[in-house]
């Protein structure tokens, strides 16, 4: 006797179940639904004279369980992340009005900017290199190799104040005439707001720059500068 198997049945029986996705929760949920549909069709349309081996079913069910667990885990992580973000934001609220230190450009509005040089060990001279928002050098200032905070007045050598705007600072460390490092210098800026941006706790510094909390290296009492 000849047994005729429909193309649909054969294709369904030999189909493989996709492995759990490693992307976003949305992608995993989509694969989860696809898995259910494929498994149901496979059970309904398998060849009764050549059914799927029980060990194959066990493997597929284990995959199903793994996908389901991954979906639940991602949901839980999203919930915990939201709770931690909100809780951290409440703690960071105390930073508003204080000064945070980070290696970011500073907004100059006419008031002095506190700069913290990062002098390389072994240097016998150092200077602060000041650049404007366009990245152009506007000033070089000699600083002690011992480091320590300094106040940048934002005034050119001829006494003319620099225009308002963003300025970045870097520490150039020298050994003799040789530059041994050129590292971003940190600045202090007043915190005007804390917020969650893209699931990350951030602070908004004077001038509007948004900085992740992980880039903040120190916080001190506030001032008008």
TrEMBL record:
**Which residue ranges have biased composition labelled Low complexity?**
1-22
Top-level taxonomic group: Bacteria
Q: Which InterPro entries match?
A: FlgD (IPR005648), FlgD/Vpr_Ig-like (IPR025965)
Q: Which residue windows are coiled coil?
A: none
Q: What does this protein do?
A: Required for flagellar hook formation. May act as a scaffolding protein.
Record region (Disordered): 1-24
**Record-level GO BP terms:** bacterial-type flagellum organization
- The residues covered by the FlgD/Vpr Ig-like domain are 109-173
Q: Which organism is it from?
A: Loktanella fryxellensis
Protein name as catalogued: Basal-body rod modification protein FlgD
- Stored Pfam families: FlgD, FlgD_ig
The UniProt keywords, alphabetically, are: Bacterial flagellum biogenesis, Cell projection, Cilium, Flagellum
Question: Where, by residue number, does the polypeptide cross the bilayer?
Answer: none
Identify its protein family: Belongs to the FlgD family.
